[in-house]
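Task card 7
Instruction: Convert sequence to structure tokens.
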Amino acid sequence: MQAGNHCASMENNARRIRALHAETHESDAAVTADIFASKMELSDRLLEATRMVEASVQTARQDLAAAERQNFAAQALHDGTERLLKSKVSILQKTASRKADSSSNMLYNIDNHKKKERRDDR
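Output:
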């Protein structure tokens, strides 16, 4: 989320600088040489700032893409772990159920065997 906010902020700064740069060239009024020189210097500085901000925007986009990839990988790992855990719990429950069934069957068979022995003894 921070990478996305940073990227949006950098893009907004780039738009503002481009607008300011365009504004310096819009004036139709006659200007003195000093004002013209100042505007050209400002324009050059704004172009340089635009290049720097655009490089920062590109870096911010790359950071955002990396963060999204990490988030996707973490979510996939979480989902896989959750499925594995559910599978193991299911296996343990089935095993416990089978043990309980076989234990009760053994007790039932022992009890029936004792009853049969008593009948045979008569």
